[in-house]
Each structure stands twice: as structure tokens, then as C-alpha cells.
Amino acid sequence: MNADRYVAALTFADYLASVVKNRKWWQDTYRLASVREEHIERAIALASSWKLLAITEDWCGDAVNILPYIARLVEAAPQKLEMRLLGRDANPDLINAHLTADRTRSIPSVIVLDDSYMEHGWWGPRPLPLQEQAMGDWWSLPKDERRVRIRTWYARDRGRQVHDELLRLLEGLTAIRQRPL
Q1: Distance between CA 105 and CA 95 in Å, rounded?
Q2: C-alpha 148 chain-centroid distance
Q3: C-alpha distances in angstroms, 87 versus 30, 43, 50, 55, 67?
Q4: Nearest Cα to Cα of residue 14 among 60, 54, 46, 49
């Protein structure tokens, strides 16, 4: 990753304006998304600032349920977090470097970069408890029923697990950066 590529990526506002598929769903999720005070405090308390690069596509239901919440977290702590978005299909080198454990190109993937655009880690494509259910008990369900359960999970969670997992990652990476050599 380099500065030019990151800066050329879309901000969340620009991405939201460019969405073609599921436009109303994206807009409604963003409008309703919020961040718990404890998550805002954790983000502001980070000793390092981070750039987040989300690999996504507008047709992805998981992205619709995750990225608006991350955008709200970034908005709540702009001195510590920044986010840009790139399309998965237009950036095969990035997604291929961030495959899931079962080697899929699942999205969203959120890459964590420092101020020099060096990668320190990544998160995605779903919160762990949801991924365990979706790939476990729910996997044998018909696709439409599985989708309903996944959407219900997101609606009940309201971004809490996404915020918690992403902040845990950022806190851990910050702690590593703060260690003396």
C-alpha cells in the first residue's frame, strides 16, 4: 500500500454516494448506525492513529451491515481513525493478500495501516460469533433462511461486536507499536 493508492480510495461519504446496489439499505443502515460511548472512549484513548482501508462491494450484505458502523466509529474519533474504501473486484492483489482461513475472497476486509501506509493487521469478514454460527449451525440451512438469521443477528447486535473486535485489534496493535525496542 502507498499514500497515492490510499488517498485515491473513496471516503465513506463518497462511497455511499456511489452505491448502486442496495442503495436504500446502505443509506438506512448508516442513518441508524451509532457508537456506544465506551467504544468512542476506547477509540479516542488509542495512543496511535490508524488508517483503515476497507475492501468491499456494494452488493455485499455483510459490508452493508458492518461498514456504516465502522464509519460512525471513525467519525467519532477522527483524530485517531480514518477510513477509505476500495472495491474487491478492482483490487485483486489486496483481497488475495487477505483471504479468509478457508481461502475465500470474503468481504468486507478492513486493513489497518499506520501513517506511513505500512500494514499492521486486518479484520473481517464478519464478527466472530456470527461467523461461527453462519459457518456452523446455520450452514446446512437453505440460503434464504441463513440470510434472514444473519440479518437478524446484525439487527440485534447494532455494531457492538464489530466495534469491540476492531478496537481490540487496534488496541493490541497500538500496544505493540508502543513497546520499546
Answers
A1: 6
A2: 21
A3: 19, 26, 20, 6, 13
A4: 54
Q: How confident is the model at residue 178 (pLDDT cuts 50, 70, 90)?
A: low
- Identify the H or E element spanning 110: strand 109-113
- Using left for φ > 0, alpha for ψ between -120 and 50, and beta otherwise, residue 9 falls in beta
* Structure confidence at residue 40 (pLDDT): 97
Residue 34 has what pLDDT? 96
Domain segments of the chain: what residues?
A: 3-125+161-176
pLDDT at 5 over 80: yes
Q: Mention the CATH class of domain 3-125+161-176.
A: alpha beta
* Grid cell of 53 as nine digits: 482501508
pLDDT tens per residue, range 51-73 = 999 999 999 999 999 999 999 99
Cα distances (angstroms) measured from residue 51 to each of 100, 114, 145: 21, 6, 36
- DSSP characters for 63-98? HHHHHHHHHHHHHH-TTTEEEEEEESTT-HHHHHTT
